[in-house]
Fold this protein.
Amino acid sequence: MSKGAIGVEPYWPQGVMRYLAPPVIPPEEAFVRRPLSRAGKSVALREGDRALTYGELTSEVEARAALVPSLLGEGQRLALVLSSRMEEALWLLAALWARCHVYPVDPSLPPSDVQRSLQRFQPDVVLVEEGAWVPLLEPWQSACVLVDQLRPEGRAQRRPGEAFLYLAGEGGALFRFSSRALLAMAVSWSAYLDVKGVVLQVEPLGTWEGLCTLLSALFRASQILQADVANGRLEMLREMEAYYSVVRWDWAQYLAEGLPRGRIGAVYLSVREPPPPRQFRRLANLLYPSLALLVFGLPEIGPAVAHHPGWFLEDSIGLPITNVDLWPLNPETGEPLDLSWEALEYGEMGVKSPMVASGALPEEAWGERVRGEWIRTHRLAQSDANGFLYLLPHRVRASGS
């Protein structure tokens, strides 16, 4: 196989599957029922003083999925504006079970981007908590439903159609993921890291970082500690250890300062640009003895390139993860080049994987990114002789920007 697409085989981490086909099963089977059969009495989610076993998680999600048809008709759209990581997870899983179009809103987005994304999504129902973002949600006041007033109960019936989840990208564009792509994301990330034990989710589900952390851990029937890193609620880690977490670069300082030393194996710092070496070393020192690792991903593609805990170079961004192929694109046109990485000084990273989005709102935001079977990242990179990728500090301008 050519290094141009996947990296030199001898340098691939030992014991890690390069490709792994996701099972063809519905989302409730992958993320709720199958984990229940493997770890029914084990803790699934823990946020603050509240904890749910996989058995309790199944009951909670199914009750919410049974309630969804009374809120939404077939093919209608549900937006989630929830600050509780646990409630957000329960309603998101219920929406997938009930075959909804669901958009978990990332509360860290600029208000203008939130407004623009909601205008594009056009939700039929917005689930909110008491007093949440009242001025921001005023245009959708008639669609808002207080989650505290709902009383989920009953058994969910399987609905026709397919579930879709939307993540917000740059400029308020929304990228649409099928349930099959979400399962591929969970399979690919968990296989690359061999996700096991306790996982720390600090990012909201409106980000690929939070979504991937949750779904990959559920798929492996792991325990998920949920915390809001911005509020420093990490006390639970004083009593238990976590395998890893993923945090956006801009929030890494909060996590590094609030994390009890030595209570997590690795912290993945999610970057979209080359990390400043001095800041990276400072964060690595703050996190020590936990590993400070890098991962590159975007809302439209999920995780694409990452360090492996047992195989990485600090100044690179790592290798393409399981099920991800990379190919150099012409930075001016976005078209695939005839030469592979080893023959080029640099190129734009093109990504192909089963976990990428399948469309966007508005549709032109997706068309601009697709070149044949490759998705443009508008990021320049180069590869060394071992197949490790290096981000370059210059970005490719998107058309119209």
